[in-house]
Amino acid sequence: MATGTFPGARFIDPVVLSRIGSLELIAKTVVDGLINGTHRSPFFGASVDFAEHRGYVPGDDIRRVDWRVYARTDKYYIKEFEADSNANFTVLLDVSKSMGFGSKISKLDYGKTLAACLAYLANSQRDRVGLITFDAAVVDHIPASAKHLDVVLHTLSRAAPSQPGELVGPLRRVAEHFGRRGIIVVISDFYAEPEAIFHAVGPIVHRGNDVALFHVMDPQEIDFSFSEASSFEDMESGEQMPIVPGRLADDYRALVRAHIDTLSKKASQQPVDYTLLNTGLPLDYALFRFLSMRQRLARTR
Amino acid sequence: MSFLAPLFLVGLAALAVPILIHLTQKERKAVVEFPSLMFLRKIPYESVQRRRIRDWFLLALRLAAIALIVAAFSRPFVRDSAIAATQGGARDIVVLLDRSYSMGYGNTWSTAQRLAGEAIGDATPADRISLVLFADAAEVALRSTPDRSRAVAEITAASPGSGSTRFGPALKLAGSLLAESLLPRQEVIVVSDFQRAGWQPDDTLRMPGGTTIRAVPVGGADGASLALTPVALLRSPVDRAQGPRGPGQPERVTVTAGVLNRTATPATDVPIALDVDGRVVQELKISAGPNQSATISFAPLTITTPNTRAVVRLGTPGQPVDALPRDNVFNFVITPSAPVPVMAVSHSAADAMLYLSRALAIGDAPRFEASMQSPEALAGDAMNRARVMLLNDVAVSDAVAAKLMAFVEGGGGLLVALGPRASWPASRAQWLPVSIGQTVDRTRGAPARLSGMEFGHAVFEPFRAPRSGDFSTARFYSYRSLSAAKDASVLARFDTGEPALVERAAGRGRVLVYASTLDLNWNDLALKPMFLPFVHQIGRHLSGFKEQPAWLTIGQVLDIDAAEVAAGATSGSAARRAGGRTILTPAGQRRDLPAPVVATPGGTAPPVTALELTEQGFYEVRGAGREPGPPIVAASNVAIAESNLDRIDPQELVAAVTGNGTTGSTSGDDVLPDEAQELAQRVWWYLLFAGILLLIAETALAHRLSKAARI
To answer: Residues with Cβ < 8 Å from B213, sequence gap 6 or more?
Structure first.
């Protein structure tokens, strides 16, 4: 788990952000702040670079004719630029019941804020943004579009945990919809076996998408800081189990650590970016991880 | 195992409470919503099972604590006399030692002392011993001491007295002592000869619950027992021809003594002697059959001095007739009758006072020494020699009124009979119980009659019974109209409702105002048969005369004021006596009585100066002032009933006091009542203590386990 501070990060408490009703305002606040803090980023203005000249063919826009070359050569050449980075950016947000858990802020609220920020950031970079919310099935599907930011934000704002979740089925199902390569961000608590998770993510990755897994966990899920012996109820299945936290905590923490390690290890084996997000930490960290991923992708292109 | 309050066992149902709480708490345990039990399911479940086992241990502790507390409230005990005796705990022992004079029979007293010492021989240092000596009354000789030797010393130092056996006061005192006891066991040990005469069943007499009564009868009174009965005195004048006797005139007295033989053995030729002033004057022999009595008369004695001490004795000084000497002596006092000096004052001629003087001259109890005087005599000091003043139609001057007031407040009696000339100074009118009005003339028409007499008053008390004198036959042709004061008592009224005889106390004396005359001028009462007793009652009442007995019994009270009057004390001597009195007891001890209290005019009568007789013999009372007045000698004798040595069964007394025949016992190893056994064993205390300890342990353990679970 990544903890601590990092250069240029602004620590914005997600609890405070959650009190701001408008996701757009939140996203703008977070993203603008982040970009202003990272203005030397190589991604800034990266979409207008010159690529090559080619011969004019009927049908080309005469505005793109390079008149300087015509003056020297008396031939029509079309000026080609680097292609625009308006990739499809789609957020897959887990809205199952377990995402409703949170000691201070629920994982779902954290995930919604994160998704909104990422969408805003992507949209500001002229990416097409889309959203898929799912639990055991796909709940909302907003196809990626440059004009869908408002819809995405609106859908995010009304997303609520209502049904038990299931990771593999929805992911396999949505993988079929990604006909064009894009950036896929999966925000979930990943309560499934690591093999099953990557089995579900595999088809998406294999279609050429850049996949980032944001593993959202509450501090209590990580630390298991319960004290009183209680009956623990599974938020999705409703099953109860008498638990004496004092005796189970160590075992539990070991299991969670092993789970995270396995996810991280498997992610590194595939071209998947895995990030563990503690809802007790500011959103900047997640965004910074996302931008770092974009930078890495740009360099390897 | 038995329970004193078995209904409390219903409280065992409370055992279900912790179980229900445990179960319900288990079901209603706080539910924590958790995203997924995926990881928790992978952890072995045994830890939860182990917690359950530990909870059951706590539950068992709680159940045990509740069961112990409930059992404590039901007050269990072991119904076993042996256990009760050994585990009874400390005792509060009250020893009732009979010190009546019958305990002086032979070696009865030494036996009683030995048995009393043995009765407390098993007392432990944890026990508390009280010693109560009783006869007519009971007194605490030793209160709640753990020192057994001190109790034995007190028993040894005690001696039988002159009183009679009365168990009631002693048992009540023991009950009150034990009621304050904080020790678990109470025991009363009664050491007595258990005379039947000493026990009067009393339903209100009950010992505190759980009290054990141990009766220790003292035997030994099986021999002959003779007792002297009260003597009879027959008085006769030396020479009746000499007319009315005066004070100090000789009087012949015949003493008749009686002997009571309470045994089955005849008493033959038992010596009996009469002592007068310490000198044997006659010795006779008397015989009495078994369970019979006999009387014997001594030769008449000529008594010239008052307060002559006389004693009748059975046997001779060196040869007692039986082992109980106290009832073989009878003390009495022979005093020539002392007249009550009466001064009658009237304006009328001597023959007008004939009826009054004649009436006063008759009678022996008391004998009145009347002196007829004219009003001029009031100016002298003749008043100081009188006890009663009778003013018949006298005009009283202010100076005379002052003297009369001093006379009355000093203890004298005054009768003011109103006639046409009678008057009283207006400046001192408040002192009289009435305000004197005009003359009411009833010569025309029907004369007035007396009615509305207060027959409860001493003056009219002899006329209470029917045909004891009809005052309505007397005719009153004139009388003075009276208006009684608020604090005065109207003893008689005329048929018109107006007061005829009014009384009020003043100081130590009394004042009577009569609305008519004592002669025949205004009424004919003097001609009626009730005139003589009426005058006698007035004289007796105004003088405060009470006939004094020749002897008293121990426990009775001597009225010293009345005895002084009977001995011939005048108002003057009583008024000037301010130094109180000194008493010489039969044992030779001197005691001082405080000066008599003088009541304010119009106030209540002063309290009677009394002396309780506690010893056998002669008490002598002397005044301590300049004019001490006549000495008083009172003879004190033991109660004749105490000489009856018949016994009651001690069980009867024990059963009467404890309410049943099984609680009390004559031996110490009988079964104690349930309450006493439970109180002695105090199992409840241990159970309650153990229950509380368990609760504390449960709390500490639960806290520790809870703390460990949080780590």
So the answer is: B187, B188, B190, B207, B654, B657, B658, B663, B664, B665
Domain end residue (candidates: B523, B542, B561): B542
A71 band by pLDDT with thresholds 50, 70 and 90? very high
Query: Do B124 and B147 belong together in one domain?
Result: yes
Q: Identify which of A107, A232, A247 has the shortest CB distance to residue B32.
A: A232
Q: Is the CB of B711 inside 8 Å of chain A's CB atoms? A: yes
Alpha-carbon distance of B269 to B255, in angstroms, equals: 19
Residues B627 and B524 in one domain: no
- Fold for A14-41+85-299, please state it: Rossmann fold (3.40.50)
Q: Which two tokens stand for residue B5?
A: 């309050």
Task: Confirm whether B231 is domain-assigned.
Answer: no
Which of A135, A227, A232, A250 has the highest number of chain B CBs within 10 A, making it the mutation to test binding with B? A232
Residues of chain A with CATH 3.40.50.410: 14-41+85-299
pLDDT, tens digit, for every residue of A221-278? 888 888 777 788 888 888 888 887 777 788 888 899 999 999 989 888 887 888 888 8
Contact A234 B37 (CB under 8 A): yes
Residue B29 located in a structural domain: yes
pLDDT of residue A272: 85
B373-417 pLDDT tens trace: 888 888 878 888 888 999 998 889 888 999 999 899 888 899 999
Domain with B207, as residue range(s), is 89-221+646-672
DSSP code of B125? T
Residues of B in contact with A218 (CB under 8 A): 35
> Do B500 and B573 belong together in one domain?
no
Q: According to the model, what pLDDT value does residue B531 have?
A: 92
User: Chain B contact for A238, CB < 8 A?
Assistant: no
Specify whether B16 is located in the same domain as B165: no
CATH of the domain at B283: 2.60.40.10
Computed on alpha carbons and rounded to an integer, the radius of gyration of chain B in Å comes to 40
Scan residues 254-293 of A and list those with Cβ closer than 8 Å to B: 255-256, 259
Beta-carbon contacts of B302 under 8 Å, excluding residues fewer than 6 positions away, are B238, B250, B251, B252, B253
Q: Is the predicted pLDDT of residue A73 greater than 90, yes or no? A: yes
Q: Whole-angstrom Cα distance, residue B228 to residue B413?
A: 41
The pLDDT tens digits for B298-354 are 998 888 777 888 999 988 877 777 878 888 899 998 877 778 889 999 876 666 788
CA atoms within 13 A on the CB side of B478: 17
According to DSSP, residue A46 is labeled T
Lowest average pLDDT, out of A173-182, B293-302, B429-438, B520-529, goes to A173-182
Q: Are residues B488 and B346 in the same domain?
A: yes
pLDDT confidence of residue B97: 92
* DSSP symbol at A113: H
What local confidence, expressed as pLDDT, does residue A72 receive?
93
Nearest to A230 among B32, B47, B711 (CB): B32
> Nearest CA to CA, how far is B38 from chain A (Å)?
7
B367 with B471, same domain? yes
Q: Are residues B564 and B627 in the same domain?
A: yes
Nearest to B515 by CA among B439, B421, B418: B418
What ipTM was predicted for this assembly? 0.75
CB distance from B38 to chain A under 8 Å? yes
Partner-chain contact A234 B32, CB within 8 Å: no
pLDDT 10s digits, B136-170: 888 899 888 888 889 999 999 998 888 888 888 88
Chain B contact for A225, CB < 8 A? no
CA distance A249 to chain B (A): 9
Q: How far is A231 from chain B (nearest CA, A)?
A: 5
Contact A76, A56 (CB under 8 A): yes
For the residues A38-50, what does the mean pLDDT come to? Answer: 41
Residue B710 touches chain A, beta carbons under 8 Å: yes
